[in-house]
Design goal:
Layout lengths: L3 H30 L4 E8 L11 H7 L3 E7 L4 E7 L13 H18 L3 E7 L3 E8 L2 H13 L9 H11 L5 E6 L7 H10 L1 E8 L11 E5 L6 E5 L3 H24 L3 E6 L5 H14 L1
Parallel strand pairs: 3-4, 3-6, 6-7, 7-10
Antiparallel strand pairs: 1-2, 4-5, 8-9
Amino acid sequence: MLPKDVTKKIRRIQITTSRLVTDFLSGQYESVFKGRGIEFDEVREYQPGDEIRSIDWNVTARMGHPYVKKHIEERQLTVMILLDASGSSYFGTAKCMKSELAAEISAVLAFAAIQNNDRVGLIIFTDRIEKFIPPRKGLQHVLRVIREALYFKPKGSGTDIEGALRYLDSVTTRRAVTFIISDFFAKDFKKPLSIANKKHDCIGITIMDPRELGLSDAGLVELADAEKGSIFLIDTANTKLREMYLSKAHRMREERSHLFGSIDVDHIELRTDKPYIKELIKFFRMRERRL
């Protein structure tokens, strides 16, 4: 039996996010994702007007003239949410912690999926796979996803995005719309993400806190690395230190944005001190224009 405060918070998120989906995102979700899932059907001879990128070069080489891959539309999509629960997600200096914002975004995506009769699943990860909820439909299933996203207590503290993507591949046989919700404080995930994006439609959602983007002058401050456990003291009154911090944070954002762009993975940045609905709408509209 869940405590009353836990039930109340889940109920609040259910009401808030389902209303946002109904008012703003439902139609856009359908136009962007519904029917965009495709699976291989057969190969046939090339006909004038076929796209060059659909040519099956292996069959073409064997047969001596062009053949193209034919696909059929999937009527039901699978939405997978990969949720980073590493130590750095339990941080927040604004309206909420990053983990709370990530859970709410998970709820929005889950409600958008079930309103369109799609299945939604959840993988919670740190430096290991913490929890897997297989994709299903229905309100009760989504409420379980929200509950686990909000209150699951992970055993690990680090971040292994490559391991999460590998696990995704082991539990999904078909293409899935895959949202990776993380602060992406991790290394060496470009190649595995690029590989995963060839099979799935991957979207990165970066969760940030304003203090990760710049320091205010608060004198001596004790900081802790939430993933490694190290503690150190810094003097935030030092102007040069604050400038270096700001420069490094800006460089990390640029590098992350370049990484996603270089492998054609869509990317959304959300902050704990700003409303997220505008950024989600902007993302869906961008996808609509591109399609």
